[in-house]
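Objective 1b. Sequence-to-structure analysis of TonB-dependent receptor.
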Amino acid sequence: MSSSVSLAAQAAGKPLVMALAICSAFSASSLATAQEKQLESVVVTVSRMPKIATEVLSDYAIITSDDIAKSGHKSLVDLLQRQRGLEVVRNGGPGASSSVFLRGTDNKQNIVLIDGVRVGSSTSGGATWSSIPLSQIDRVEIVYGPASTMYGADAVGGVIQIFTKQGDGPPAPTVSAGFGSHNTYKLEAGVSGSHEGFRYALRASHDESDGFSATKPGAFGFNPDRDGFDNDSVSGQLGLQLAKGHDIGLTFLHSDLKNRFDNSATFDDRSSTKLASYGVYSKNQILPNWTSQVQVSQSQDRVVSNMRSGRTLFDTTQTHVSWQNNFTVFGTDILQLIAEHRREEVDSTTRELIGARTTESLAAAYQLKRGAHLAAAGIRYDDNSQFGSKTTGNLSYGYRLTGALRASASVATSFRAPTFNDLYFPGFGIASNRPEKGRNAEIGLYYDNGKSQYSAVYYRNRLSDMLVNTTVCPIEQATHPFGCAYNVNKALLTGLSFNAAVPLGDFKLRGAFDLQDPKDETTGRQLARRSKKHGTLGLEYGLGKLTTGSEVVFSGHRFDDTNNRNRLGGYGLVNLYAHYDFAPGWSVFGRWENVFDKEYELARTYNTVGSSVFVGIRYGIR
């Protein structure tokens, strides 16, 4: 392992040579017999419209409903932990506060969408991951790399979009029930279908667990009690075709999470998190070459905590109006024009945070296809009432070397807006803080013959005006005696990301490996809670109605703090799962997490799940 890491590290300075060497390792016979016509899977998030996957220039990953069902995962955070380019942090067990790092960027430097509706906190920044129920998710798309041209502020590391189920065909009910370690229960039910232009899909679920102590002895506020959770959630999509090419619809998701955490040795600390997203849309084929889509949406991220020190409230409401126009030009090219309005409103028990800001945006993008050549370009202007205007852009080019092999390269800029905490939190925020800025360049090779998939990507993302918590505040020292958030640092995120999935008879081998260097250039230190290498390796066996699999999730060491004094050791976890269809529509599933009961930390002095089992039964046609 060490020799391969060393070789990759040496090659990091020559990414194109490295990528070509990997592709040359593919057998000549495999390339010669590649299918010229690819399986036409579709990606939506990259260009905000359905696009054939083989024509997408950005690096991406898709988690299908079948992947979710067979894996037996209980939470979205656990599901994302096995994906390439992603690292997760959780302050305790399922239901606890969690973060997701994408290509070495912070949780605040990525955008999360639910059916096109942006969700997250304007105070802490980023999504409240523990409140997004996996039971409501049908599909996940992960877009790696800056996407500010399409989505505006905060898409520095990428975008993760969650899709709930759509209705199609005759009525199809689904039910599921499961039980596992720590008295964990899951109950789900739903129905979906369509009739004479009307589509519907509704789901409801209840999850709960007694859990275990979130913290370890010696931690601040350590309490040996169990820190469990319970979550109730519903989601739905309703759509109606008024006429051919004219559709209206409604999407919604509502989640209520109640969990316990440790902040006092003698008090039962609790929090309640409400996540809600609602969207209404109209899609219209105005002309044969002109499609218009208008969406009005709103999301809420509300966290109420009850501790010995008192009650706290952090409540974000985002209202979003977008108008997107797609024009087909020159037969195969696409011109996109987008206008958007977003309003963020914050309510809090911390009075200084109460307020609102608006962002007005205009964007244009062009996608070109000429034989084996693919290209895309875009520009966006965002004008924020709080910190002013920002302009971002991107330029991408791809070339099909064969029907199965393509190469691409891109450059893009991005920015992250300061959160309300960065600006106004007492003793921390500075009202004059500016947005962080990012400049990314990457090159990649992708191979997909419909059966085997390989990819190798090198990226270099330079961040400036990074907002960090400095111990000595350079301004307003009297009101910030212990430091503040300030635009002081620069960071360089470089990495090589490899992915492979290969069928071997009745087996399927998959693996991913990320070799990265997320470094604070101002201090020369490794960014907190991010490793220099991490990955997964899995082997799945499928024969008829039975699917079984094993996987290893591994990571190198990390540091829990910006000064790199508190080291978190590397780890390797072994998981097993199985899925069996025992009757039409009926299946049983099971998952054994952390088989060897490995002790490890994702955050210092916080416990992680030991060896645990979850089994269930499901009815429904996937």
